[in-house]
Amino acid sequence: MKIGLMSLSLLAAILLTGCDEGAKSEEWYKAHDTERRAKYEECRKESNPRGTEDCRNAIDATVHGGHFTKSPYKVWTN
What we know:
58% helix; elongated; mainly alpha
């Protein structure tokens, strides 16, 4: 009886924490630059920027798509 109740509780927890419905994929964000930038800025303002699947995909598309500006080349002199 206890095992059945624990199994049912575990199953309910898994089902309730499913993926974000309507989340766009990383590839979608790479193809839609305006939407990616808007979502990226929205997610940066959150207390947990990678808290949703949609935010994770927008951030990953920004990083993996090469949309970050690189720092200028620095030369070390003595």
